[in-house]
């Protein structure tokens, strides 16, 4: 089990997250939802250990970092590195040997091409492939469906199901509610630095309504489009 | 166009300022360093003017990179774009041609200027999509990227070594060796995104050892032809000097890696850069610098790799 207790994060004087309490069990898929800038990425980075924070993150394994697969919102690719070399780098980093990248190329990416020349969706798929090849136990996926085509979207959903069956912990974020409904077991609504609501699958509509109830119609009216 | 060039000057000014040096002093240091290196080339090499000319032109090729030119084409109308390119290339080789004139190599100065203007009509477009094969693909990324960026440098350095052997000019051979080391060190000059460090399931010590081992192994492969040439085709008395240069070169590669990670994600600060510079002039200082940088790098990486 991965448990987060009293996690807080601030950048200088600006509080981003405060007293976050979450628990993720193996074989569960958790979705974190919230508006842009709510702190989802910061929360993910804190869990991964890419950001310093206050509070505790506990996992059964001693070094949580070495078993986390983190997919960034916009994965960064070094120039003049091919797709295959990127995957090789990620595998080398976790001491995974003898991987047949061509056979494992589930998204049929042009692995001999420089990764920097890939489209947004292809970059996301390459980064996700890398994270999957690392045989991690925890998957932190920041907007895994962003920019990805319909076919790949279906593949990712199936992959998530397989990971769930294998007893992995999966935490993801997405702005596409239908995708969250299809994949997640729990949803956590992040707003004003805190987890405002946590619901099970059968009550996802509560969070959907909460998010819709942002008074945007009034805002559009006030915008006064001419 | 004037604004563009004043902006370039401002950028350079800011870079020096960020480095922690008063920009005017920084410019003075750069000029002094430039004159010192140029004098050293002319003092130690017979074909200095040709080497000097080649260095200038090869460096000016950087101005023809795809990204830069796409940006420039977006900013300027076609006529202005060509003016900027020609002016940029001319200004870039100006220090080289000025020094060649100072050394009374007027023809070479004219050639470098003509070539620079000609080069402004070309850019490296098309190279971006071609995957350059590299022998280092199993262990990305520094040597993979570095080799692809500088793949043309090594045949040039090997040719220089061959010329050095042919004309029995040991200094020219040593110049090739130093050039190869500088090239390998430059592969570690850019800071990678945090993710590329974080992703390693290694302790800071293991991470640094892995980086250093890879660098020493791969740089040895690239240096091998030069080292063999210098060892076998020059008198036995020079063997010790070659070995010394090799040893120092490998030490400087280690210092570059340790310096990079002891400050990550910041750039190497001025004091550290100064210490590295002094160690070039007084190599025994490396005995002090290497353990110091190593200790700092371990401490710095600890927060990224152990959590």
TrEMBL record, chain A:
Name this protein carries in UniProt: ATP-binding cassette domain-containing protein
Domain ABC transporter per the UniProt entry, residue ranges: 2-217
Annotated source species: Kordia aestuariivivens
Pfam family, one: ABC_tran
Secretion signal, residue range per the UniProt entry: none
Record key words, sorted: ATP-binding, Nucleotide-binding, Transport
SUPFAM superfamilies: P-loop containing nucleoside triphosphate hydrolases
Origin: domain of life: Bacteria
InterPro entries xref list: AAA+_ATPase (IPR003593), ABC_transporter-like_ATP-bd (IPR003439), ABC_Transporter_VariousFunc (IPR051782), P-loop_NTPase (IPR027417)
GO molecular function: ATP binding
């Amino acid at each position: 089990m991965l448990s987060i207790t009293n996690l807080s994060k601030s950048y200088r004087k600006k509080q981003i997250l405060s007293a976050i309490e979450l628990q993720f069990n193996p074989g569960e898929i958790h979705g974190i939802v919230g508006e842009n800038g709510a702190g989802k990425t910061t929360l993910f980075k804190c869990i991964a250990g890419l950001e310093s924070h206050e509070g505790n993150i506990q996992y059964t394994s001693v070094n949580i970092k070495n078993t986390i697969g983190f997919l960034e919102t916009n994965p960064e690719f070094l120039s003049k590195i091919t797709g295959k070399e990127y995957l090789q780098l990620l595998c080398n980093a976790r001491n995974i040997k003898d991987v047949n990248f061509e056979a494992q190329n589930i998204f049929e990416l042009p692995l001999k091409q420089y990764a920097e020349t890939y489209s947004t969706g292809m970059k996301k798929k390459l980064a996700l492939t890398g994270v999957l090849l690392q045989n991690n136990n925890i998957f932190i996926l920041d907007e895994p469906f962003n920019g990805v085509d319909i076919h790949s979207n279906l593949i990712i959903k199936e992959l998530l199901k397989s990971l769930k069956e294998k007893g992995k912990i999966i935490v993801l974020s997405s702005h596409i509610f239908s995708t969250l409904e299809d994949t997640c077991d729990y949803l956590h609504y992040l707003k004003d630095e805190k987890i405002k609501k946590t619901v099970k699958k059968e009550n996802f509509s509560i969070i959907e309504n909460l998010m819709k109830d942002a008074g945007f119609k009034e805002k559009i009216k006030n915008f006064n489009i001419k | 166009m004037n604004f563009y060039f004043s902006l370039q000057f401002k950028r350079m000014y800011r870079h020096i300022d960020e480095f922690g040096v008063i920009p005017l002093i920084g410019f003075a240091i750069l000029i002094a360093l430039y004159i010192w290196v140029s004098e050293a080339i002319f003092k130690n090499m017979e074909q200095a003017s040709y080497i000097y000319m080649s260095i200038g032109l090869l460096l000016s090729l950087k101005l023809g990179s795809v990204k830069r030119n796409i940006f420039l084409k977006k900013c300027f109308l076609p006529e202005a774009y060509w003016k900027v390119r020609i002016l940029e290339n001319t200004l870039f080789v100006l220090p080289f041609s000025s020094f060649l004139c100072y050394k009374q190599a007027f023809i070479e100065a004219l050639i470098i200027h003509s070539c620079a203007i000609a080069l402004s009509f070309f850019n490296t477009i098309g190279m971006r999509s071609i995957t350059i094969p590299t022998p280092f693909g199993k262990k990305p990324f520094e040597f993979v990227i570095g080799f692809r960026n500088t793949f043309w440098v090594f045949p040039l350095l090997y040719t220089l070594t061959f010329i050095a052997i042919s004309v029995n000019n040991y200094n020219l051979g040593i110049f090739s060796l130093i050039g190869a080391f500088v090239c390998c060190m430059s592969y570690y000059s850019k800071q990678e995104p945090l993710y590329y460090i974080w992703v390693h399931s290694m302790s800071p010590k293991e991470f640094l050892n892995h980086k250093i081992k890879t660098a020493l192994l791969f740089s040895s492969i690239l240096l091998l032809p030069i080292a063999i040439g210098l060892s076998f085709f020059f008198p036995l008395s020079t063997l010790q000097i070659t070995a010394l240069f090799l040893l120092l070169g490998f030490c400087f590669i280690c210092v570059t890696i340790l310096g990079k990670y002891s400050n990550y994600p910041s750039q190497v600060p001025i004091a550290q850069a100064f210490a590295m510079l002094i160690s070039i002039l007084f190599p025994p200082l490396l005995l002090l610098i290497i353990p110091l940088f190593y200790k700092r790098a371990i401490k710095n990486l600890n927060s990224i790799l152990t959590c």
